């Protein structure tokens, strides 16, 4: 239903690097919805603290462990949004979590295991083909990154830094962004691949090709019925920048500055989510705190369906990162917006 944020959690497999440094798995999926995290620092033989459970459990709408396939994740989180976008609703899917926990894999995947973007677009074009009788559809897309609070067009980076504008109806648009008409899913995936090569990536201690920006794919479906009005639905597919603390990535200088901007945007997103979930108490939602939340204004509140897929590593060495991700995602689960 519109106005509800669905929160999923995905635990990736242990990496070879984690196994090599002797990390143990401390995050486990217990059932369809529950994930348990164990504090690796607590001594199992400490009798005084034995009464306080060393494990904390977190409940989500759906939880996936390392055995979940891309298809399973797509079906449980995103497939149901396609029909809504075609009939004029907005939908947003965003991948959240620390660097190197599988956000880009979930969203883009690989050639052999395509991610949510390819699967969603495939189903979108198929659904349009199946329903277009007396209805004309037009699909267009734009692809941008938000890096250090600046917006860059990934399909045409030479445009430089772009500004956000609000039109008369209150819809937030990126002024001057390239909008490309799209014919089929393959074409969109080629454009995405081209855009990704332009993305700001820098090596950090956590990940060799860490995405230091939020990448936002916006797909707009305009529908015109014969003798009827015009409807349009917008779909945002977002690969957020890594949410980890600076100490983890050993960042300094430029990396540190990026981290501050990334964290500012993620904090603003968290604050909007928190304010939306306490709607009775909060009349004012501060979307203007970051470019990301301004851009997503219509997609967090209002007639939108929103899915957040949070990602963690199961390794004991990632405990702090996993705990803060689980807390953030768990808090997001209580969001209820008014349509």
Automatic annotation (TrEMBL):
PROSITE patterns: KINESIN_MOTOR_1, KINESIN_MOTOR_2
Subcellular location, principal: other
InterPro entries: Kinesin-like_fam (IPR027640), Kinesin_motor_CS (IPR019821), Kinesin_motor_dom (IPR001752), Kinesin_motor_dom_sf (IPR036961), P-loop_NTPase (IPR027417)
Pfam family, one: Kinesin
A biological process term (GO) from this entry: microtubule-based movement
List of residues binding ATP: 97-104
GO function terms (MF aspect): ATP binding; microtubule binding; microtubule motor activity
Domain Kinesin motor: start-end pairs: 4-335
Alphabetically ordered keywords of this record: ATP-binding, Cell projection, Cilium, Coiled coil, Cytoplasm, Cytoskeleton, Microtubule, Motor protein, Nucleotide-binding
UniProt entry tagged with the keyword Transcription regulation: no
One cellular component term from this protein's GO annotations in UniProt: cilium
Keyword NAD: no
UniProt superkingdom: Eukaryota
Function: Plus end-directed microtubule-dependent motor protein that regulates the length of motile cilia by mediating depolymerization of microtubules at ciliary tips.
Record's protein name: Kinesin-like protein
Source species of the chain: Calonectris borealis (Cory's shearwater)
Taxonomic placement: Eukaryota, Metazoa, Chordata, Craniata, Vertebrata
């Amino acid at each position: 239903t519109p106005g509800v944020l669905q929160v999923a959690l995905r635990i990736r497999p242990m990496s070879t690097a984690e196994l090599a440094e002797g990390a143990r798995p401390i995050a486990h999926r217990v059932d369809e919805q529950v994930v348990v995290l164990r504090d690796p620092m607590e001594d199992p033989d400490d009798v005084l603290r034995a009464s306080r459970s060393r494990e904390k459990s977190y409940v989500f709408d759906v939880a996936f462990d390392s055995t979940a396939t891309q298809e399973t994740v797509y079906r449980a989180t995103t497939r149901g949004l396609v029909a809504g976008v075609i009939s004029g609703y907005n939908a947003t899917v965003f991948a959240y979590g620390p660097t190197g926990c599988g956000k880009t894999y979930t969203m883009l995947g690989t050639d052999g295991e395509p991610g949510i973007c390819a699967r969603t677009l495939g189903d979108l074009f198929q659904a349009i083909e199946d329903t277009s009788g007396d209805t004309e559809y037009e699909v267009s897309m734009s692809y941008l990154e938000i890096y250090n609070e600046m917006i860059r067009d990934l399909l045409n980076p030479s445009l430089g830094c772009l500004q956000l504008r609000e039109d008369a109806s209150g819809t937030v648009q990126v002024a001057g962004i390239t909008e490309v008409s799209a014919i089929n899913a393959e074409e969109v995936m080629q454009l995405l691949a081209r855009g990704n090569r332009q993305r700001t990536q820098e090596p950090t201690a956590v990940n060799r090709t860490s995405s230091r920006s939020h990448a936002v794919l916006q797909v707009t479906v305009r529908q015109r019925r014969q003798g009827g009005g015009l409807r349009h639905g917008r779909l945002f597919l977002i690969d957020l920048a890594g949410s980890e603390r600076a100490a983890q990535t050993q960042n300094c200088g430029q990396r540190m500055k990026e981290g501050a901007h990334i964290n500012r945007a993620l904090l603003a997103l968290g604050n909007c989510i928190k304010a939306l979930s306490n709607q009775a108490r909060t009349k004012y939602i501060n979307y203007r705190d970051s470019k990301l939340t301004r851009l997503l204004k219509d997609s967090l509140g209002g007639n939108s369906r929103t899915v957040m897929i949070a990602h963690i590593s199961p390794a004991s060495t990632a405990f702090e990162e996993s705990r803060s991700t689980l807390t953030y995602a768990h808090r997001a689960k209580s969001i209820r917006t008014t349509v």
